[in-house]
Amino acid sequence: MTEPRQQWPADFGRRYLDAGHWTDQTLPGFFHERAEANPGRVAVRSADGVALTYEEIDRRARAVASGLRAAGLHPGERVLLQLPNVPEFFTAMFGVMYAGLVPVYALPAHRRMEVEHFVEASGARAYICPDAHGGFDYRALARGLREHLPDMRVFVVGDAEDLEPFDEIESAPPGELESLDPAAVAFLQLSGGSTGLSKLIPRTHRDYAYTLRESARICGLSERSVYLGALPIAHNFPMSSPGTLGTFYAGGSVTLSLAPSPDAAFPLIERDGVTITGVVPPVAILWARASERSSHDLSSLEVLQVGGARFAPEAARRIEPALGCTLQQVYGMAEGLVNYTRLDDPEEVRMNTQGRPISEDDELRFVDADDRDVPEGTPGHLLTRGPYTIRAYYANDGTNERAFTAEGFYRTGDLVARRPDGNLVVHGRVSDVINRGGEKVPVEEVENHLLAHDAVLDAVLVAVPDSFLGEKTCAVVIPDGPAPAAPELRKWIRERGLAPYKVPDEVVFVEGYPSTGVGKVSRRELRATVRDRIREERERS
Ligand code: AMP
Ligand code: DBH
Question: Are strands 185-190 and 326-333 parallel, antiparallel or unpaired?
């Protein structure tokens, strides 16, 4: 499979080039420029305090590129990258790119089911993983992969046991760099999914470089900025809004935390004088609470970004007084469009809205279920296209027809209103994803796993309100014969090799589903009815 180039129609491409949004910069190219300009500046500090300069990261990345080529990988091929927040994330990512290969990102939380899906969907020929992290051994997963795919190359960061150590390729002699096309796909990012399994998102060098440049500017980054990677850094938010890569773009430095908890993050904020970071709403709430009891000096923190899921205004108002920094709301998606409240926006805007787009060339439409425009200011399904929003998923023609309009607008699946001042307010989702505090659970995927159980006749996964996560998942199951115990069913799902965040938080058994009307009902209607019924029952009890 050869790698596609950008998918924008030629007239749009010209417009984005003429406007100066798109340039000839590539992702490893800009990093290399920074390394040449300021070789001795610290680019990354690990959680345990190891500091690596721009030059060191760049040199190791070039070594990784030689090592991967020596291992027989060819430009254009895909490499699955599943690493936690460690410096090797960057040497691997830039190294893969330097070799003309295409990284495909997986989150540390992903397990065998997801990893196999990413490998299959991308045709990846190599897998870079940690030895173990968060109590999970990725080497066992890698060995399982190699049983079906004996040609798969595996490189392990840490103790490789019988597999190939990443160390070895990281210390290969750095060679010549591939010259990269700025219009080519730089990597495949993961979507939280609008239906079914995660889809792969082809982002090009130039569209991503544009978001990094503008995000760094909007978020006030400079060479003195210190960004804390607290969320998993493979995710699009901490990667690019402005995230670790936006920080490199500005010449700042990145500190890596292995977890977003206050216990892990607060000492690092104090140690490195962190100025900005991004977290999901439940984490922001924990931080605000923990700061009252914490003895750590958080005074360096200037901006706390919150995004990934709806942040209730009541919670938002607690952030600035508790942490003594500016709250910035971020509403984005790996498919492209990113909105920010601006740092100098009035407080009312920072607390109550999810901000406005990066680009004057981001086009937004708000429509009803039949794609007709709704009156300005009323919530509608948000459709968008622009200089950094994809026009199609990677090799997924069936989904593309549903996920994009004929005019190339991406259907975000979000219900959003635009206020007269241009700021957006996210009201919820219209597609079948449960947003579990920023972690996106694709409903259909989980239902299909439940249905595979012998004792399950039918299953729907619904969102139920949760004071901490915003919403959590509840599987409503019609048993086939005697009902299995709920913990058994959850364990069974987990053992199928599904990411822990997709395992239903609750399981309830019912004899049948409430009727949703006459005739054949859609799963979506059924879910809505079951969800309402569960809510009513909880309110009564
Ligand atoms: P993903 O497809 O995994 O990149 O997730 C993107 C989705 O996360 C968006 O389409 C929204 O549904 C949700 N999201 C991201 N940021 C926010 C936010 N600040 N407020 C509400 N929802 C958000
Ligand atoms: O949730 C997201 O995917 C997200 C949130 C904020 C995102 O991709 C982003 C900013 O870039």
Answer: unpaired
166 alpha carbon – ligand 1 mean position (Å): 33
Q: What tokens were used for 364?
A: 């937004």
Å from CA of 47 to ligand 1 middle: 28
Ligand nearest to the CA of residue 429, numbered in listed order: 1
pLDDT digits (tens, 9 = 90+) for 208-249: 999 999 999 999 999 999 999 999 999 999 999 999 999 999
Is the shortest distance between the CB of 412 and ligand 1 below 6 Å? yes
> b/e per residue, 383-419, with b = 16+ CB within 10 A?
bbbbbbbbbbbbeeeebbeebbeeebbbbbbbbbbbe
Q: List phi, psi (to 5°) of 334.
A: -65, -25
Distance CA 47, CA 339 (A): 30
Which phi and psi angles does 79 have, rounded to 5°?
A: -130, 120
Q: Are strands 356-357 and 363-367 parallel, antiparallel or unpaired?
A: unpaired
Sign of CA dihedral 193, 194, 199, 202: negative
Q: Which of 329, 331, 390 to mutate to test the pocket of ligand 1 (most atoms within 8 A of CB)?
A: 331
DSSP string, 446-495: HHHHHHTSTTEEEEEEEEEEETTTEEEEEEEEEESSSPPPHHHHHHHHHH
Element at 263 (helix H, strand E): helix 262-272
- 307 CA to middle of ligand 1, Å? 7
310 lines ligand 1 (CB under 6 A): yes
Residue 236 CA, ligand 2 centroid: distance in Å = 6
All structural domains of the chain, each given as residue ranges with its CATH number in brackets, are 9-21+204-430 (3.40.50.12780), 26-181 (3.40.50.980), 432-540 (3.30.300.30)
pLDDT tens across 2-57, in order?
Answer: 446 668 999 999 999 999 999 999 999 999 999 999 999 999 999 999 999 999 99
The CA distances from residue 337 to 10, 303, 486, in Å, are 20, 21, 39
Q: Is the CB of 440 under 6 A from ligand 1?
A: yes
| 8-state DSSP, 249 | H
**Measured distance CA(185)–CA(150) in Å, rounded:** 27
DSSP count for the chain of H helices, then E strands: 18, 27
